[in-house]
Amino acid sequence: MDQLLWRVLPLLTILVSFGVFFYLQDSYTAQFYALIKLPRDKCSLLPHRHFWISSKRIVTPQGIISGSVEINDGKIISVVEGHANQGKPKQEEVIDYGDAVIMPGLIDVHVHLDEPGRTEWEGFDTGTRAAAAGGVTTVVDMPLNNYPTTVSKEKLKLKLDAAEDKIYVDVGFWGGLIPENALNTSILEGLLSAGVLGMKSFMCPSGINDFPMTTIDHIKAGLPVLAKYKRPIVVHAEVQQDFENHLELNEDNLDPRAYLTYLNARPPSWEEAAIKQLVGVTKDTRKGGPLEGAHVHIVHLSDSSASLDLIKEAKSRGDSISVETCPHYLAFSSEEIPNGDTRFKCSPPIRDAYNREKLWGAVLEGHIDLLSSDHSPTVPELKLMEEGDFLKAWGGISSLQFNLPVTWSYGKKYGLTLEQLSLLWSKKPATLAGLESKGAIAVGNHADIVVWQPELEFDLDDDYPVFIKHSELSAYMGRRLSGKVLETFVRGNLVFKDGKHAPAPCGVQILAK
Fold it and tell me: Which residues cross the membrane (predicted)?
């Protein structure tokens, strides 16, 4: 009897271990939904946890395939060529999207959601609804224009609390580098330890009183801490110069309603001056350098000439540096902006058509690493639409929901491919923000997916369902675009379909470890 027991005991131990393992797996899943205080079926418009999606056009790291993606408990568990029902029937649900494109969800690393403190501008609810409707599955929220700004771990906690139970997509957070914390290692380390994905700084006035500008010396002071944590600094790279030196003193150019007045007030030399200072520092970020582990990322590049040349040269030397531009610089040109139409005001400004052509060339050649929206909404009274004063109006373009169709509509004329689109809006942003389980349709990654139809055209008019707050302030309203988003999945949850969102917001707050 004892001998039989000793033979059976190891087998029983194995069986119990398997039972405990699967119990815990289910328990962790249950704990997640308990943590967000919502039943699982409220998070998705689809009742299934384990299912397949099929299409003739799936954008994968290996290229575009006709195949199927298997999703279980929020993750991609297989990617196969051919229809999921091919061979033997599957027990799981199979959704066939025909020739619609299945692509990694977009990751927008430059978004101002303005909460807490300025929900009349945007807010986590409307902003992430807009993201989901646009196929954006992850956003990284900027440390301003919310109030208070996110410049310490205590201020980050306020933002995390404000976002709870409000986000329809995953949200990460940048911290703000300002003189106070740049020169105080304990504050900066506290913010990074609390989970921000990196730091944002302005080399010119930000327009927000509690987010003062930094000099290159402040950035130098903060970089050793960022190198230690291996997190990037993302920089608004303009150094302010004397306004009068850049205006021709004639009546037309001094008219504040004339776009040319504003354009001349922020010349390309502002960007060039800032980037020249930054590349003087990035040499130390090379392998073996004293700042190895730090990374400098330049946001919303507008100047495609001298400024871009400086970045290309720094990259060629092995500096850890990258750059983004935005759809509005690729879609619009200064020549077509009507006087008084302050919807088009942003910083740096939208430049001429020749500059736009060069920007597209840099995007397609890989010199510009990624795209972001710089979604920067406000309230109508600050945009000064009636006065049309470009010098006094709030600068920022509201665009989060339109990233995909705008980029595709204008980019396809330059030969932009689906693979390039995915690289610019998914893989490269994931790399910048350190999001290892996002940015590609690959086994083990989060099932963050957009299903869209590139050939489908639509008018962005009053009848189109727009979810950003104050949509009338967006420069894209009234445009005819190609590339309609059909459905959006975030961690396997179908969060958007046919103009409707999931019953409850179940996005996850992303914190660096």
Answer: 6-24
Tokens for 486, please give them: 């059909």
Question: Which distant-in-sequence residues (6+ apart) come within 8 Å of 202 by Cβ?
Answer: 211, 213, 214, 235, 236
Segment 339-381, tens digit of pLDDT? 999 999 999 999 999 999 999 999 999 999 999 999 999 999 9
DSSP, collapsed to helix, strand or coil, labels residue 446 as: strand
> Residue 296 is inside which H or E element, if any?
strand 295-298
What H or E segment, with its residue span, contains residue 265? helix 259-265
Summarize pLDDT for 437-480 with one digit per residue, the tens: 999 999 999 999 999 999 999 999 999 999 999 999 999 999 99
Q: Phi/psi of residue 314, each to 5°?
A: -65, -40
pLDDT tens figures, 303-322 = 999 999 999 999 999 999 99
Complete DSSP assignment for 143-155: SSSSSS-S-SHHH
Place of tokens 């060039």: 272
Domains along the chain with CATH numbers: 103-447+455-480+489-509 (3.20.20.140)
Long-range residue pairs from 360-365, CB within 8 A, at least 24 positions apart, any chain: 360/330, 360/411, 360/414, 361/304, 362/304, 362/308, 362/325, 363/325, 363/330, 363/411, 363/416, 363/424, 364/414, 364/415, 364/416, 364/420
What is the Cα gyration radius of the chain? 24
Q: What percent of the chain has pLDDT over 70?
A: 89
Axis-axis angle for helices 185-193, 216-229 (nearest 10): 50
How far apart are the C-alpha atoms of 496 and 493, rounded to whole Å? 9
DSSP classification of residue 479: -
Dihedral (C-alpha) 129, 374, 102, 504: value to the nearest 10 degrees? -20
What separation in angstroms does the CA of 219 have from each of 109, 215, 216, 512?
Answer: 20, 7, 5, 21
| The pLDDT value given to residue 83 | 79
Cα–Cα dist 236/110, whole Å: 11
Res 32 pLDDT > 50? no
First to last CA, the chain: 53
* pLDDT tens sequence across 69-78: 999 999 999 9
Token output for 235: 């920089």
Provide the 3-class DSSP secondary structure of residue 169: coil
Residue 461 burial (CB < 10 Å; 0-12/13-18/19+)? Answer: exposed
The rounded distance, in Å, linking the Cα atoms of 191 and 40 is: 32
pTM: 0.91
Q: Six-digit token pair at 406?
A: 């705008």
- Please give the Cα distance from 329 to 342 (Å, whole number): 15
User: Cβ contacts of residue 136 below 8 Å, gap of 6+?
Assistant: 105, 106, 107, 108, 169, 400, 401, 403, 404, 450, 488
